[in-house]
Amino acid sequence: MDKMNIMTYNITHQYHLGAFIMPKELTQNSVQYFKTDKETPKSTLTTILKNVQEKIEEKNNLLLIMSENAQELERIESLVRLVHLRIKDLKDSEMEHLVEMAMPTVNLQQPNEILDQARQNAELRTDFLKTYKALGAEDVHKFCGSTATNKAALAGAWRTKGLIFKIENNNRQLYPVFQFDSTTGKPKPVIARILKALGANMGPWQIAIWFTTPNPSLQRCRPVDLLDRDPTRVVNAAKQLLADNLF
Q: Is 225 within 8 Å of 244 (Cβ atoms)?
């Protein structure tokens, strides 16, 4: 049984149907309304469904409502017609009021612990950006001495390969400098090992904060401070974190 036949069956045996055809170019008389009930002749029903199908194929907007309550459909019809009669004359303020009336009531109060956590995260990110230098994609290109024409491509390629990670601030992608060798400007090999060990469950900012937070597995040293002196220990600390499922 195809989709149209299923629709026909449902309407004939169970539901009332209200179909509101709304062309993209709205006028006062552009809204067409079809209504059926359980007593609608099959020939009439077939004509209505054919009309609906044609409107769909013409890519008009279609609001199709089926209900067991005929009075409910009549109320919806009145509302749709009212909206379309006024839609072109509505001022922004009136439309905003209409949208607010249609929105469900939402409790905007959040538990204190959620607000506290958000505040702590904001403070950690602010401290990170103040303490640790980070480069934009073009700065990474310059830092490593690349001569490629696309100055943003190199950082993106390294990140895609899992060699480095990025953070975002004010819609800008940034790459912490401690990931790069100060001599060559290329990613430190240990970074890829650490990122792999941490897995995909940590977000970019979680990774950044992990690098710069005293770590119990490293005798309270920060991973970032041991990247050059003892990289294997940092990798093991990352593996331990994943094993303990701390995040």
A: no
